[in-house]
# Entry
Amino acid sequence: MISLIAALSMQSVIGIRNTIPWRLPADLAWFKHNTINKPVIMGRMTFESIGRRPLPERINIVVTNHVQHYINAVSGVIWVSSLYHAIKAAFSVGNFKEIMVIGGGSIYEKMIIYADRLYLTHIEVNIEGDVFFPKYKLKEWKVVFNESYDHDINNPYRYRFEILERKIIPNK
# Structure
């Protein structure tokens, strides 16, 4: 199963200048809970935005056009040149039921057509950005989890966790 996990604003913003444009600890906990002990696929810029180090307790697979430049740069990372090789690597390293795609924008754009599940954090914030989560047709997805939260002392925005699973559309 291929899953995408992302936090997005009301305008589908997911980033600006290679950073996340908000601080929401509850979303970080949600992200960790749903990605721990699973392979995570990300683009090079996302890898750089998280501090150029692998996420602990996950198999980190990074897609870059410059594999030779990075191959020995960071231990604990599998460097690949394409999403095809990323998926192949994720399935070859273990018997995992779910592969998590964690960004960025161009990786989501290419992978959403292959996704079986979406883990989305909808954040009630109007914010400018330069990276967006791709558009998707809600009619192709079934909501299997939906939980909303008000802002609190640690989380300055209202937010909603949602899990969508792709509907199986029978052939006519």
Q: What stands out?
A: Residues 25-35 form the longest helix (11 residues).
